[in-house]
Amino acid sequence: MEKITIRDVRKEDCPRIMELIQELAVYEKAPEAVTVTLQEFEDAGFGKNPVWKAFAAVHTEDGKETIVGFALYYIRYSTWKGCRLYLEDLIVTESFRGRRIGNMLFERLFEEVREKKFKGMNWQVLEWNEPAINFYKKLNASFDPEWWNASIDF
């Protein structure tokens, strides 16, 4: 019997999560952009001062568990709105897409927003990623054409 469940990511899941991060980077046409090491990733999520949390989509078949997707987030503070969940990455591995796993991860994120009494959640999507944009539209997400992304790397 096969099933999909959503649970918190554990430290021992980090190598698999890093594989999925690399898969996402390849999909987004930037595989060389992933420079974080496994150790840095683990420390940032499970070290002395964790800065991220994630939910894993776990496929179980014949007693064997495989992480087939994840949603990683952190808390951001808006001076206009208050605490909000910021979804950094969400991916479902290609062979499991179309099974409503993305919906399951979003539902768990929505539960987290309500449980923590956050004011909402934010995320980004690449302008060419039509499958993701169409998925987000089904969730009634709004898109803001006025704000551009800016960053500085050190």
Automatic annotation (TrEMBL):
Alphabetized GO MF terms: N-acetyltransferase activity
Alphabetic keyword roster: Acyltransferase, Transferase
Domain annotation N-acetyltransferase: ranges: 4-154
Gene3D superfamilies attached to this UniProt entry: 3.40.630.30
PROSITE patterns: GNAT
Sections of the chain in a coiled coil: none
Family note: Belongs to the acetyltransferase family.
Protein name: L-amino acid N-acyltransferase YncA
